[in-house]
Amino acid sequence: MPPFMSPNQIAETTRLAITPRLDGKIGADEWDPLTNPENVQTFFQWEPGKLYVAGKLPLGWDFVFSLDRNANGWLVGRDNLEARITLKEGKPKLQVRGLDSTDSQGPKWFDAADFEQASSVAAKADDKGWTFELALGDPGRGLLPTGPSQVGVRIDAVPASAAPSEAYLPRSMTTLKLAFDRHAGMPGKLIWRPLVIARSIVPGDQVKVRHTFNGNNDLHLHRLEMRSQGPLKDATTSLGMPFPEFDPKGRAFLDYTTSVEKGTDPGWFVQRSTLEGEDGVSSVLETCLRIAPPIDFDLTREQIPFSDTIRTIRMSAILQSNSSRRLDGTLTFVPPTGWRVMRGSDKAFIIPHARGRVRRTFELEVPGGVTGPFQITFRAYVGSKVIEQSTWLTVVPK
Q1: How far, in Å, CA of 297 to CA of 140, rounded?
Q2: How far, in Å, CA of 377 to CA of 389, rounded?
């Protein structure tokens, strides 16, 4: 069979938002397994704006990850990416290229090296093989999902000596559903919906997940055990309770409330519930929550048109509170090297309401003749805390 045409055998096509720790080790409950062909193990998960891929494979082999962003076919559109990871002298090397199938002359690879700047990869090797962990980030191109959606993927191990494939060759892709919730083994007549007011929790705050069930008492459901999965299981609450009777409208409700210890690292994690039935068969219910900084920052525009000359552009930033408290502080914009913030930096802001948002404008001096991705940093001073995040601006060539 031609390369990249053998279908990936994937048991679970719904993938959850989980943030791994990139250290070259596959930790317990840290990764969601994807495939397990001979001599190779692979893992895949996501979070808004990033895709996470990991693998264990023999020495002398490279890993190739193929992404069809819109799940519309590998040789369709300009939304396809290939990431290849090679182990050289004990260190991982990432190469990313994109595929454009919109040209009437046929598919062509295009340069996507800016994804390498926006991504992180870690690896470890021993005499049995090597392990890698990849966080694929988007340098402002809009080619990675920012919320629940569907994508096409495939995962391949190829000999390190194998040449890059030609652009016109097809690939067999598998459609994956990127989601915040999933379940397995649930009785067919039972409907489950998790209700979450806000999925983001600031360490020290609380979050409540209301598990809503539609069914009837003939299902003989006994108990629901609820806990957080992975590294956060000791920083959040575990809870178990008998399953309640369904009301006359066929509804039952169970609440999971947890606080998060201060100092907990940010990232997405899974709240996992196990539902026990009379027959001893258990159903697994999973929903994603996020340990978040007090404020998230974003730009209302991420692309700037090219110019040969220096110019000043007016920009807007959105400050989104994840806190249940009022936030007062000062916002500073740290521009890319060689750029300048002309106005709007070091200004006070107030977010008066829980999980509210405000907009702040600033003026940015952009050098002439530059193209590509550039990183801009937001730095907020709130009391004794410094909250810092970076995002990407892209100067689009003519």
Answers
A1: 14
A2: 6
pLDDT digits (tens, 9 = 90+) for 86-97: 999 999 999 999
Q: Which CATH class is domain 182-291?
A: mainly beta
Q: Where are the domains positioned within the chain?
A: 14-179, 182-291, 295-396
**14-179: in CATH 2.60.40.1190:** yes
The CA-based angle 106-110-114, given to 5 degrees, is 165
Please indicate, yes or no, whether the overall pTM of this predicted structure exceeds 0.85: yes
User: Among 140, 110, 135, 111, which Cα is nearest to 122's?
Assistant: 135
Instruction: Specify whether domain 295-396 bears CATH 2.60.40.2310.
Output: yes
Instruction: Give the whole-angstrom CA distance, residue 216 versus residue 246.
Output: 6
H helices, E strands: number in the chain? 1, 30
Nearest CA among 179, 182, 244 for reference residue 213:
244
Cα-Cα-Cα-Cα dihedral sign, residues 18, 24, 26, 29: negative
